[in-house]
Structures are given as C-alpha cells and as structure tokens.
Write a structure and sequence with these properties.
By secondary structure, the chain is an alpha+beta fold. The chain is 45% helix and 15% strand.
C-alpha cells in the first residue's frame, strides 16, 4: 500500500473558460485582446483556443479562466480613473509584484 501524499493541491473545480466577448457581452477589439493575452502570459495563466460561429463572426477566439478575467476587471475598474477603465495600463503581473518585493527586501537587508 502506498501511503505517500501527493504534493498537488485539489483546489476544487477549475474556472470556466470564456472569451472576452462572453465576459463583456460585446466585441472588445484586437487591441484589448492583445493586451489581455500579454497579461495572461506574464501571469502564467492558461488560455485556450475556441472555435466560434455567430451571425457576425466565424473563427477562433482565445478563452481565459473567468476568475482571472474577474481579477482584471476589478483592477481595471478600481485603478482606472475614467469611463474608459484605463487601469490595465498600470497593471503589474504577479511576477512583477514578487520581484519588486524581493528587491525592496534586499535593499533593506543591505542598509
């Protein structure tokens, strides 16, 4: 009998994967799509491709975890200073935040 424990955590059900169109209820354009994709790479967030067919669009779209899009939307609405929600301009990936904290810690240790 194997009594070893797995190092993997069971975090429950994975988040639903949805497109930006499904999340916002309207097309978001290539500029925002590119920005969100780059942020997902920086945050190491899994994204997938999904084939869609609507009356106005047929092709492949990228889908992201809904929980991660919720995080971006929250940041965009709280940091963004106007109706355009420009908060993502100042968004920092999790890796950038950790690197800044490490740098601050190292500077304090040297002082």
């Amino acid at each position: 009998m194997n009594n070893s424990k797995s190092n993997k955590q069971d975090w429950g059900y994975p988040s639903e994967m949805i497109s930006l169109f499904e999340y916002y209820g309207k097309p978001q354009g290539a500029d925002l799509g590119t920005k969100v994709y780059k942020l997902s790479v920086a945050d190491r967030v899994t994204s997938e491709h999904k084939d869609v067919t609507t009356s106005k669009y047929k092709g492949t779209v990228r889908v992201y975890p809904k929980t991660w899009l919720d995080k971006l939307d929250f940041i965009d609405n709280t940091i963004g200073g106007n109706d355009k929600g420009d908060g993502l301009t100042n968004y920092k990936s999790d890796l950038e935040i950790v690197n800044e904290l490490v740098s601050e810690y190292e500077q304090k240790a040297e002082a």
